[in-house]
C-alpha cells in the first residue's frame, strides 16, 4: 500500500484529518509541518502546503524526497466554472492545467509550459474511480463530477475572468494549488488525484459565498479522504 501524502492548502482543510490520525512524528521543513502516522489503518503524511502554486509544489517534492510517498491526494475547496456544478458538489480531477502560464509571445498556446512534453497532467484512473465511488456512497446528497481542475495564482471572483478561463481551458473548477501538485507528481511519476469541494461560483458572488460554504465544503472533503484511505 505504501505511504499516502495528503496535502491541503489551508489549516482548516487538514486540521480535522490530523485530529483523527495517530501521529508518530511531526517533521518541520520549509516552514511546513508534516504529520507522519496512521489514519484508518494506513500510513499517511498530512501537511498544510500553504496557498499558491509555489508552496504546493515545494510541499509535494518534500513528500516525495523525504517521505517516499507512493501517491498524493490533494484535498481542498474551489470555485465552480460550470453551471451544472453547484456549491457543495465535489470535483474529482480528470486532469489539471495552469491557466496563468502564458508563453504565447513565443508561439505557444495559452497554458502550455515551454519545453515540457505535456502541460496537461492526467490524474490516476484508479484514484479517480475510487474517489467517485466513495463520494457517491458516503455523501449521496451531493454530486461528484469528474473533470479538469484549472489552477492559477488568483482567487477568481470576477464573472468575466471566470468566463475567459472556462472558455480557454474548459475546466470544471478553479483554484490555486492543484495543477502545480499534479506537475510535480508527473515529473516524479507519482499517482495523484485532486479533490475539490465547491465553495463558490468563482464570479461576483464569490466573496459572499465563500465564507458561508467553506465549512461545509471542508467537511465533505474530509469524509471523502477518510473513506478513500480505507479502500487503498
Automatic annotation (TrEMBL):
Annotated EC: 3.2.2.9
Q: Would you tell me the Gene Ontology cellular component terms? A: cytosol
Give the EC class as a word: hydrolase
Q: Which GO terms describe its molecular function?
A: adenosylhomocysteine nucleosidase activity; methylthioadenosine nucleosidase activity
Record carries keyword Hydrolase: yes
Q: Which Pfam families match?
A: PNP_UDP_1
One GO term under biological process is: L-methionine salvage from methylthioadenosine
The pathway entry for this protein reads as:
Amino-acid biosynthesis; L-methionine biosynthesis via salvage pathway; S-methyl-5-thio-alpha-D-ribose 1-phosphate from S-methyl-5'-thioadenosine (hydrolase route): step 1/2
Where in this chain does the record put each Nucleoside phosphorylase domain? 5-229
Query: What keywords are assigned to this protein?
Result: Amino-acid biosynthesis, Glycosidase, Hydrolase, Methionine biosynthesis
- Listed PANTHER family: 5'-METHYLTHIOADENOSINE/S-ADENOSYLHOMOCYSTEINE NUCLEOSIDASE, 5'-METHYLTHIOADENOSINE_S-ADENOSYLHOMOCYSTEINE NUCLEOSIDASE
Q: NCBIfam families attached here? A: MTA_SAH-Nsdase, PRK05584.1
Q: What is the recorded name of this protein?
A: adenosylhomocysteine nucleosidase
| Organism the protein comes from | Candidatus Galacturonatibacter soehngenii
